[in-house]
Design a protein that fits this description.
The protein is of the alpha/beta class. Helices cover 16% and strands 34% of the residues. A 7-stranded mixed beta sheet has the order 1-15-12-10-11-8-6. A 7-stranded mixed beta sheet has the order 2-3-4-16-9-5-7, with no helix packed on it. A hairpin with a 5-residue loop joins strand 2 and strand 3. It is globular. The model has no long low-confidence stretch (mean pLDDT 93). The structure holds zinc ion.
Length: 239
């Protein structure tokens, strides 16, 4: 595979699950994915069974804003890190986010979920995950947008150094604003030896979209978490 990946930007609204949690569902190559906004289960808990197809279990991380990748084949807490690789059909990799960027990756036979805030992006976690998994497809979910993500000069410089100058915007107050999802897309497109065919972006700002999404910068300690999950269908091993 060669050439630049297709960038597919979407702004579709959520649908409500039976218990009122707002969700987006999609397919990514051989994988299925789910993003849950308002009404998601609390951080650290598995996804509510009614949000997942029958037979799908979940694995998740103790997220620490690192560039550490873990791999698991078992349901439950996988340990401390910010990227989780899974190669077992029927086991979903899940990350929790509330302004940070959720990145979901799919290759033939393996998937990964990444939690990328500015620290993780500056440390290159999205590029590392892509180089380890060699995905054909990538999905970038809702994060705080350049409209709302004002940062200091040092943070802006660190993320620009790990992505591209275009992710920095001039804010109204003279302080820099950052496009975190754009930085994640740059790292995916530039990952060494990786031929991603398509990068799909669900572009909604978590802070602006109060009716749909949790945002830490908006709600601080009261903020819940949005959840992003990706899995290979349970029957993928027996087509
Ligand atoms: Zn915004």
């Amino acid at each position: 595979m060669s050439g630049a990946p297709v960038i597919d930007v979407r702004e579709s609204p959520p649908e409500a699950s039976a218990r009122g949690a707002l969700r987006w569902r999609d397919r990514l190559g051989p994988a299925e994915l789910l993003f849950v906004g308002r009404g998601a289960p609390r951080r650290g808990e598995p996804l509510a069974p009614e949000l997942l197809p029958a037979g799908v279990e979940t694995a998740w991380l103790e997220q620490v804003h690192s560039a550490r990748l873990l791999e698991t084949g078992e349901a439950g807490a996988a340990g401390a890190g910010d990227g989780l690789l899974v190669g077992r059909p029927g086991l979903a990799a899940v990350v929790a986010v509330a302004d940070c960027v959720p990145v979901l990756l799919a290759a033939a036979g393996r998937v990964a979920a990444v939690h990328a805030g500015w620290r993780g992006l500056a440390a290159g976690i999205v590029a590392r995950a892509a180089e380890r998994l060699a995905p054909d497809w990538a999905w970038i979910g809702p994060a705080i947008g350049p409209c709302c993500y004002e940062v200091g000069e040092e943070v802006a410089a660190a993320v620009v150094a790990a992505s591209a100058p275009e992710v920095r915007r001039a804010g109204a107050a003279g302080r820099p604003h950052l496009d975190l999802a754009g930085a994640a897309a740059r790292q995916l497109a530039a990952a060494r030896g990786v031929g991603i065919r398509e990068i799909r972006i669900l572009r909604h700002c978590t802070r602006c979209r109060e009716e749909w999404l949790e945002s830490h910068r908006r709600d601080r300690e009261r903020a819940g978490r949005n959840l992003a999950a990706i899995w290979l269908p349970p029957d993928a091993a027996h087509p």
